[in-house]
Design goal:
Number of domains: 3
Strand content: 15-25%
CATH superfamily of the largest domain: LmbE-like
Number of strands: 16
CATH class of the largest domain: Alpha Beta
Strand order of the largest sheet: 12-11-10-13-14-16-15
Mean pLDDT: 90
Distance between the termini: 48 Å
CATH topology of the largest domain: Rossmann fold
Low-confidence stretches: none
Largest sheet: 7 strands, mixed
């Protein structure tokens, strides 16, 4: 009887292991042996000789803030059981970057934290690299180095399709800077997090939109961005793609049962947009709103999603609306910083643990959509503030549905608590990272980029 029970438990554990592995591999929408394909600018490449135990830093480029090393990895059989990673050591600095199980092919090591911690890296200093569950072929490779404008001197406009996108992708960038956070939608659709309190789906959506709108206005205060420098445009969740296809048509929120942008826009305290502008949810009005904001703020850095890699339609068309507005505002000069939240090619990205280095997202094209890359490594203080900012976002924080009577039943209460904390841990692993990555392109390329993005949108997630 005892051995039968043990065997049963082992079989159950084995079943869940196989199911977990199946879901792991299903989360990748590409061949794990395929080379990542990025079109790095030629002037960013510096040749290095990669040995089995690392490489010597090449001739320094003063002021470089971002570094990626091209590396052809080969996972061994142990990567069936463990996530492969490369451990990088320089003096007392230790970095870990993870890769896909069983992966092989061209990948890129993010070495930017070395520059953040030790700006004085000089020629011939030894960078030690050790593969765990993988190896690489020694030989000549390339180190890509980039120098970006000083953030402290910039005026930054953050464009977030939904409440929480700005915090997930750009908190470290806007923290304590001259920055404005503009959120396009109220995020009223989708989840039914508050079903315990609202049986009417429309009331639920209205409440959810109100809560998330408030979040988008006050949570940036964790980064010293007051509500006066934030604005939620109040457009409706999941509608941007359809709006772009019929620019003059008035759209409504099917979830909340409203077509008036003031339903959610009324909670703004900022004067970034005048109160007498049209409040119909049309693509033309969205572009006009962004045009007005560009003229009023006159940013030198505009942070927005990357339509080639981010697979969420609202993210893709938020950037397309911005690019259309930029075509109307030629006086706005600066750089676009393109970020990714919903990677179209893998729901697992960014890979690895919350404290590991963030890799470039999987991408398999040589499209020349960027001139630089900016990898921002967060200090521990900023990382801690980002933790609390993300935790303050109600869409991410767990909501307990048990009523008082159910809480007295210990088992369901404990199970639900464990489940919600497990989901929260998975979310934080992805969204709370020590690095933020941006592809940089000049705003003067807005027309070209809009055409390029429209023809090559990432597959929808």
């Amino acid at each position: 009887m005892f051995f039968g029970l043990i065997l049963f438990l082992v079989m159950i554990a084995f079943y869940f292991y196989l199911d977990s592995e199946h879901r792991y591999y299903q989360s990748f929408r590409y061949d794990l042996q395929a080379d990542y394909g990025y079109a790095f600018p030629k002037d960013s490449a510096v040749p290095v000789t990669l040995e089995k135990n690392g490489f010597k830093w090449p001739s320094a480029r003063p002021g470089a803030d971002t570094a990626f090393l091209k590396i052809a990895v080969r996972s061994d059989w142990t990567s069936l059981l463990f996530l492969p990673y490369v451990e990088v050591r320089y003096r007392d600095i230790v970095l870990k970057q993870y890769f896909e199980k069983t992966s092989s092919g061209i990948r890129y090591l993010n070495l930017s934290p070395l520059l953040k911690a030790t700006p004085s890296l000089t020629k011939k200093e030894e960078i030690v690299c050790k593969g765990h569950h993988l190896s690489w072929d020694p030989g000549v490779s390339e180190l890509y180095l980039f120098q970006n404008p000083e953030i402290k001197k910039a005026k930054i406009l953050i464009l977030a399709p939904h409440p929480d996108d700005a915090e997930i992708a750009t908190f470290g960038l806007y923290d304590d800077q001259d920055a404005y956070v503009i959120t396009l939608t109220a995020g009223e659709g989708g989840k039914t997090k508050y079903k315990r309190f609202f049986k009417d789906p429309k009331k639920h959506a209205l409440f959810q939109g109100k809560v998330r709108t408030w979040d988008s206005l006050v949570v940036p205060f964790w980064g010293n961005i007051p509500p006066q420098k934030c604005f939620n445009l109040g457009y409706f969740d999941g509608t941007l793609k359809a709006m772009s296809g019929n620019p003059a048509r008035k759209f409504a929120s099917e979830d909340a049962g409203t077509s008036d942008l003031n339903t959610f826009r009324q909670y703004n305290v900022s004067d970034l947009l005048p109160k007498d502008i049209p409040t119909e949810a049309t693509w033309n009005n969205l572009v006009a709103d962004l045009e007005h904001l560009l003229n009023k703020i006159n940013p030198t850095i505009i942070v927005t999603p990357n339509p080639l890699i981010d697979g969420h339609p609202d993210h893709q068309f938020a950037t397309l609306a911005l690019l259309e507005a930029l075509q109307r505002t030629p006086a706005v000069k600066g750089n676009l910083y393109l970020y990714t939240v919903h990677c179209a090619y893998s729901t697992r990205w960014p890979l690895g643990t919350a404290k590991s280095v963030v890799s470039l997202p999987p991408f398999f094209s040589k499209l020349p959509f960027f001139e630089k890359i900016y990898a921002l490594h967060l200090s521990l203080d900023v990382y801690t503030q980002k933790f609390f900012a993300i935790d303050d976002m109600h869409d991410i924080r767990p909501v307990y549905f048990l009523n008082a009577q159910q809480i007295t039943e210990a088992l369901p209460s404990a199970l639900q608590s464990l489940y919600l904390h497990w989901k929260g841990a998975l979310t934080m692993r992805k969204y709370l990272r020590m690095d933020e990555l941006f592809f940089v392109a000049p705003t003067e390329n807005a027309s070209h980029l809009r055409e390029l993005f429209l023809k090559n949108l990432a597959p929808e997630d």
